[in-house]
Amino acid sequence: MALLEIRNVTRRYGDLAAVCDVSLDVEQGEFFTLLGPSGCGKTTLLRMIAGFEAPDAGRILLDGKDLAGTPPEQRPVHTVFQSYALFPHMTVAQNIAFPLRMAGRPTEEISRRVGETLELVHLGDKAHQYPHELSGGQKQRVALARGLVNRPRLLLLDEPLGALDAKLREEMQLELIKLQKEVGVTFVFVTHAQAEALALSHRIAVLRDGRVEQMDEPSRIYGFPKNRFVADFIGSINLLDAEVIEAASGHLRLSVAGLGEVIAPHAAAAGAGLRGAFAIRPEQVRISPHTEAPQLKNHFTGRVSSFLYIGDVTTYIVETAGGARIEALLPNSAPGRAQFFETGDAVAVSWRHDAGAWLGE
After folding, report:
1. pTM, 2 dp
2. 360 near 246, Cβ under 8 Å?
3. CA-CA distance, 351 to 343, in Å (whole number)?
């Protein structure tokens, strides 16, 4: 039995269904992420798990027990917000102790648990400081410590890293992964940041307009998106209109807009004459001088229309003779100058026959 079971949950605000017939399970010890654009229903779903809102239909079960009618303070669940929600007039230790004091725990137990939790988040030397004396990352760790001090069955994290700068955000991602492993508490994490979801999660549910579009491990969602929305929302991708010419047992022959014939991996839903899209990640596309002899079946020539140097890689936009725009990544790991092609250069783009995917309408 899963730790958290969400069964056909719906939440409406007037005519708007913020969450619509969502079902999913979260396993004990899992780092589970609700991912989607603003307004997709992820925070509403989190608030219903916490008990701040009630579903209009469906059930939410924790350890097999229906949470309907159980107020937030009586649920073995804690929420960490993006704003941290720390008490400015309390020290770090007092902030962390607050949930235990509210639960009426003995003073000796509070002191012991606060000390253990401070060490867990590497803030043992900050116990007597106030929030205004801390950095953003330290405040975030205090908020996490307060959420973990009473050992909840479930820790809910609502965009907890959203207020941090890029470098600190990356550091806190590593902290979160390490912390979750050490304490073994189940995390349900809400974010709109795709890279963050891919880096942190055991599984991801991608939401759009209150519904789950796809739920799977990060590598499956990135590598095998179910539809155009998931493909386009998760990372960078080339999406081109395509029609199936032939669906063979091991591959597809596609007619792709602006390219012509493309060989792609087999897709169970594909059949001759069906229209959809051909999707391929930029890192799967090879860019080379146009004079180089073709080594891959999918080989097309064009010109560099623009490029973006990003440090470890350069992103090139290549416009083919047929008018398709293909994004390709070239690692900057080779010695010498990082930029290999200039705007206007004639180049070739190519990829393996087993790369990319056909997606239905």
Report:
1. 0.88
2. no
3. 21
Cα separation, 265 vs 77, in Å, equals: 44
Q: What pLDDT does residue 83 have? A: 75
CA distance 275 to 241: 8
Extents of the domains making up the chain: 4-228, 236-360
C-alpha separations of 126 from 86, 100, 161 in Å: 14, 19, 20
Q: Contacts from 18-22 at CB under 8 Å and sequence distance 24+?
A: 18/44, 18/210, 19/44, 19/45, 19/48, 19/55, 19/210, 20/209, 20/210, 20/211, 21/57, 21/58, 21/211, 22/58, 22/207, 22/210, 22/211, 22/212
Range 4-228 classified under CATH 3.40.50.12370: no
Q: How far is residue 82's CA from residue 96's CA, in Å, rounded to a whole number? A: 17
pLDDT of residue 335: 62
Residues 194 and 235: beta-carbon distance below 8 Å: yes
Q: What is the pLDDT of residue 5?
A: 97
236-360 sits in which CATH class? Answer: mainly beta
**CB count in 10 Å sphere of residue 335:** 4
Cα separation, 130 vs 296, whole angstroms = 61
Intervals of the chain under pLDDT 50: 338
* Per-residue pLDDT at 50: 94
**Interhelix angle 92-102/107-120, nearest 10 degrees:** 130
The residues, ordered by sequence, that sit 6+ positions from 356 with a Cβ below 8 Å of its Cβ are: 262, 264, 265, 278, 279, 280, 281, 284
Task: Decide: 224 and 269 in contact? Cβ < 8 Å.
Answer: no
If you search the block for the tokens 């908020």, which residue do you land on? 143
Handedness of CA 329, 331, 334, 336 (dihedral sign): positive
Give which of 109, 108, 117 is closest to 151, Cα–Cα: 117
